[in-house]
Design brief:
- The protein has a single domain, classed as Amino acid/polyamine transporter I.
- Helices cover 73% and strands 0% of the residues.
- The protein contains 21 helices and no strands.
- The longest helix is centred in the first third of the chain and has 38 residues.
- The radius of gyration is 22 Å and the shape is globular.
- It is found in: Membrane.
- GO terms for molecular function: transmembrane transporter activity.
- It comes from Hebeloma cylindrosporum.
- It holds the Pfam family AA_permease_2.
Length: 482
């Protein structure tokens, strides 16, 4: 069963999609060296977070996740407010990571169309309509075919494994655009496209690997915790799934990246592609034909579709859970379950859909909208998972002394590193990818984050402090179900 949990994490945080969708930002931020060594760096720096959460999860294995952990670790005087803040961070983070997946899939679809219509320059509203279609379809599949979602996850895992191997063989064998030396594939660094200084340009170029390794992994960590009541012996299985998911995803990411970097076409040509998404042209040039490029593109697009189905479902469950705890305006509406559709939280699905479509309108005014969407997700999800770790450290880690999955003497150092690295990422994801900054290239992540923070604070003052009592304990949840 632990292996099934690891597969679940890999589905939610898949390297191929997470690295392909925003690859233009890494090309702007430095190119091959940024991509490959950024992948190594972020995989290493994210592992302490996963280990720290695995330790907490082994002590409190509950589907409520981070905001329950904050509730248990904080003093009684402040635990309700702390869990409220964490719950809102988690919910907004899941909404925006779902948005980044559906929007990224839409951009990949537009890039696929560009393979056969290279002169087509999509208007922002056209890209938005594609995004709308993918988001609506992903929601409808989750609502109407809820019972088939576990089977879809299995198909996704098979598609992913076979797809990455097919791409590894085909790209390595064809290399129509030429082959590069190891010095280029592993060491070429050109920060001139970003306008930033070389050092900061490298970190800006990390956004795609951070997109995957932080935003998508954070979402996946949440999904692992949500399965606590569904697995046998969660005290053992959940920490194993958390701690091994990153190394496994790291290896898959290398298998995806290395053949591309050794056969990478001309970078200025890729960055000049209409619409700003070069993945379709990249595969076409590497494979030497539109048909070959389309075949490689189809693998990545299929992964994106599977991810969109899975993450939209996760967003609806997170919305329903927080509404059940009376922490959202009109909570009685969003916490309803439609029994005719197989106990699907239909209203929560629809709320998540509407939030994504409204936030997607940012793209009509800013082509850097994708970075903003993922930026909000990293800020919210990263902060939500750093909070219980920081609280544990502030308490002297006394709550973790009897944790079944103990980090021992390494615990304090790993905890502090995880929190500090997350603080750095919050700053990084608030920065624009290029300078000088214009209205179009502005990163609106901080604006969206502050907007949701204001809504959360106002609702707490109006209603939350009276209605919200904190997340239910596992015993209360079981009692309510019986």
């Amino acid at each position: 069963m632990a292996s099934n949990l690891i597969i679940e994490v890999m589905i939610k945080s898949h390297p191929a999609f997470g690295l392909a969708a925003p690859i233009a930002t890494s090309l702007i931020g430095g190119g091959p060296a940024t991509i490959i060594w950024g992948w190594v760096l972020i995989s290493i720096t994210t592992q302490p977070l996963a280990l720290s959460l695995a330790e907490i999860c082994s002590k409190y294995p509950t589907s409520a996740g981070a905001y329950y952990w904050c509730f248990r670790l904080t003093t009684p005087k402040r635990r309700v407010l702390t869990s409220w803040i964490n719950g809102w961070l988690t919910m907004v983070g899941v909404w925006t990571i779902s948005l980044s997946v559906t929007f990224g899939t839409a951009q990949i679809l537009v890039a696929g169309i560009g393979i056969f219509h290279p002169d087509w320059i999509p208007a922002p509203w056209q890209t938005y309509m594609v995004f709308l279609g993918i988001t609506v379809v992903s929601t409808l599949v989750g609502v109407l075919f809820n019972s088939f979602l576990p089977t879809i996850d299995i198909i996704c895992a098979c598609w992913t494994a076979l797809g990455v191997m097919v791409m590894l063989v085909c790209i390595s064998a064809k290399a129509a655009s030429g082959r590069h030396s190891a010095a280029f594939a592993l060491g070429h660094f050109d920060p001139s496209f970003s306008g930033w200084t070389p050092g900061w340009s490298f970190f800006i170029g990390l956004l795609p690997v951070l997109d995957h390794r932080t935003a998508y992994t954070y979402a996946a960590i949440g999904m692992v915790a949500s399965m606590a009541e569904e697995v046998h012996n969660p005290v053992v299985q959940l920490p194993l799934a958390l701690s091994w998911s990153i190394p496994i995803s790291f290896v898959i990411g290398l298998l995806f990246l290395l053949p591309i970097l050794f056969t990478l076409p001309d970078i200025p040509t890729l960055l000049a592609v209409p619409g700003g998404q070069p993945i379709g042209l990249l595969f076409e040039l590497i494979m030497g034909s539109k048909g070959g490029g389309f075949g490689m593109w189809l693998i990545v697009f299929g992964i994106g579709v599977f991810c969109a189905l899975s993450i939209c479902c996760a967003a609806s469950r997170a919305t329903w859970s927080f509404a059940r705890d009376k922490a959202i305006p009109l909570h009685s509406v969003w916490s309803q379950v439609n029994h005719n559709l197989g106990d699907v939280p239909l209203n929560a699905y629809l709320l998540s859909l509407v939030v994504q479509l409204l936030l997607g309108l940012i793209f009509l005014g800013s082509t850097a909208a994708f970075n903003a969407f993922v930026g909000v997700a990293v800020i919210c999800l990263g902060a939500s998972y750093a909070m219980p770790i920081a609280i544990s450290v502030a308490n002297g880690r006394k709550d973790m002394k009897d944790a079944p999955f103990s980090l021992g003497r390494w615990g304090y150092g790993l905890n502090v590193f995880a929190v500090m690295w997350m603080a750095f990422e919050i700053v990084l994801f608030s920065m624009p990818a290029v300078i000088p900054v214009t209205q179009v290239s502005m990163n609106y992540a901080s604006v969206v984050f502050v907007g949701f923070a204001f809504i959360s604070a106002m609702w707490y003052l109006i209603n939350g402090r009276e209605m919200y009592k904190g997340p239910p304990t596992p015993e209360e949840t079981i009692e309510a179900e019986n």
